[in-house]
Each structure stands twice: as C-alpha cells, then as structure tokens.
Amino acid sequence: MSIFDHAEFRDHEQVVFAHDPLSGLKAIIAIHNSYLGPALGGLQIHPYRNDAQALGNVLRSSRTMTFKSALADLSHGGGKAVIIADPRYDKTPALLEAMGHLIDSLNGRYIAAEDLGSNAADMQALARVTPHVMGLRNPAGAGGDPSPFTAWGVYNAMRGAVRHALGKEELRGVQVAIQGVGHVGARLARYLHEAGARLVLSDVDSHAVNSLARHVDARVVAPKAIFDVDADIFAPCAMGDVLNAEVCRRLQTCIVVGAANDQLAEPACAEQLHARGIVYVPDYVANAGGVIEVAWQRRADYDRRRVMAHIAGIERTLETILERAGREGLPPVAIADRLAEERFVKRRIQAT
Q: Looking at residue 139, what is its pLDDT?
C-alpha cells in the first residue's frame, strides 16, 4: 500500500524513514503541517510490533500535534518522531547520535521534545548533534519534567468542563476517577486534592497508587473497575485508545477529560459519548500544557508565571469550544477540529 493511501496520512507534508546499520537506528519522522511554524512533537522510543504500527502512530500523533499547537496559540505546526527500539536495552549514545543527525538533516522543519521512552537526558544527547531540540534545562528554569505543566493544563480544562456541564465555579466536592497515576496523573491528583475534589484512583502499579492515595485521601479501585466508578469526571491519564465502544457504554460520568494522548480508539466514540450526554474534552485541548511550556523555551523572555498563565488559558479555549458545540448540537471534538483548522488555514492564506 502506498503511504499516500494510508488511513492516517491525511495530507502530511513530509514523512521520513531512516535506517543506520551501524547504530541500529530505525526511525520515522512525520511532519503533518507547518502553516503556523516549524513542526514540534515528541520523540518516542518504543519496540513497536511492526513497522506498520509505528507508522500509524507517528502519522496520527503528528496530526494531533498540529491541532494541539493551533488551539494553544503556538507558532508551531505538528510533528512526531519514533525510534523503533526498546529504550531499556537499545538506547545507546550511538543510536541517539544517529537520530540527532536525522533531525538535523531536516534543517529545523521538525523540533524534537521528550516523549514515551525518551527523557531530558536524551534531549541533551541530541542537542550535542542538532540545535533542533527542546526540553533542555536552562538557567531561567525552563526544561526538565513536563508533567507539572501538562497536569496544570488538564486541571484548568476540568474547571472549564465542570462550569459548563455541572454549573459549578470550583472543583470542591467534585468526584474525579483518575486512570493512571504516573508523573502527570499523580500531579493532577495533587492539584485536585488541594482544590477539595474527591478522588478515585487506579493504576497497574499497586504500590504507586496506594502510596499516592494515602497522600490525597483517595479511594483505590482495580484497573478494570475504574470505568464503572460513579463519578462526575473520568480522567484517562494512562495509555491512548482507552475510549473504545465498550468503555463508552460503561462510563458512569458526565465529563471525560484527561492527560492521555489519542484517547479515542476510533472517531465514532466521540459521537457515542455525545449521544449519551457525556462531555468529552478533546485530549489535544486538555493536555497541551507540556507543549506550551516547551514552546516557551525558545523565547528569550521565558518566565514560569507567564507560562502557567498561558496554560491556564486552556480553560477559556475550552469554554469557547463547548459553547459552540452546545449551540450547534455537535460533539466538542468536531468544533475543536474546526477551530484549529480555522487558525492554521488563516495563517496559510496570510502567507500566500
């Protein structure tokens, strides 16, 4: 099958495949759209079952990054990169150096940041080869762990969703079921606990979830039981593709908003949630806090307070989306897609 016929291709500008026999590098970089600026997106290092799975993921994720950057008012387009390897065993200096050269060959059209399987140390290694990297710690306090910023964005998205769906101005007393308490999920739980929310937690790591539960006064349920919790909000903060048809039938919440990427197993699930009266906040709206902070790192006037204020603006963006969705009787994801397209197409027209 031609890549142009791939279900996830969707008008990508450039897709690069690379192989370096000496280091073992097998990588794909996808640039979906650069109307608003150079493509920004994470570098994943993951042992995909096959090349087709890796390609599908990088195409889908790069498109999502285009919409995420547009709705976050960033001067960036969407991109994504994957290295097909196991980060526990295959991530060597030679592999990262080869990946750095591949990124550099694109002359700034793609800018890498950390993602699944990569970390700040890996970004430092890439930076020794190419300047087209973000997520580097600097004296101004930028860089490092993006989880506080991502969690802050999801928290503010929850505020907007609760105001719209529940008519409440604060999160005190709101019950939130969080699936996944890794770096972002755990930070989100702490923000919510401080705001007075009631929490139900679930994670495959029983030690981590029970330890966190003691600190945030939360109830813990088994991973498969989190979908059946009677709560106001379901917050998927683990892996993607969690919202499949079965889960959408089981959910006992009126809002879905979380940090996981690519939450919808298929587009029809957004319609399914909408038909049930469940407000689904598009993941690329809610979880944009990390990419907002990363984008600020390119600015000479980086200031953490201004970064957090920019991220807090996710609440206003979501309110615009939900208001339009209500007026037009459409799922919020349809309005979010339209609003993002309006923004980057307008920039394209201005440039021509």
A: 45
Distance CA 60, CA 240 (A): 12
Identify the CA nearest to 222 among candidates 199, 205, 197.
205
User: Phi then psi for 201, rounded to 5 degrees?
Assistant: -120, 150
- Amino acid 95 reads L
Q: State the Cα–Cα distance between residues 103 and 111, nearest whole angstrom.
A: 8
Cβ-Cβ contacts under 8 Å for 141 (sequence gap 6 or more): 302, 304
Sheet holding 233-236, edge to edge: 219-220, 198-202, 175-179, 233-236, 255-256, 279-280
Please answer whether residues 288 and 40 qualify as being in contact, where contact means their C-beta atoms are separated by less than 8 angstroms.
no
Burial class (CB in 10 A: 0-12, 13-18, 19+), 65: buried
R_g of the chain, CA atoms, integer Å: 20
Q: Which residues are catalytic?
A: 80
CB count in 10 Å sphere of residue 44: 23
Express each pLDDT in 15-74 by its tens digit.
999 999 999 999 999 999 999 999 999 999 999 999 999 999 999 999 999 999 999 999
SS3 category, 46: strand
Question: 138 to each of 131, 134, 144, 300, 317, how far by Cα in Å?
Answer: 14, 11, 9, 11, 29
pLDDT at 209: 97
Q: What is the pLDDT of residues 95-141, one digit of tens each?
A: 999 999 999 999 999 999 988 899 889 999 999 999 999 877 554 55
Q: Give backbone dihedrals phi and psi of 18, rounded to 5 degrees, phi first.
A: -140, 145
Q: Output the CA–CA distances (angstroms, integers) from residue 38 to 129, 165, 189, 233, 341, in the order listed.
A: 19, 36, 33, 35, 16
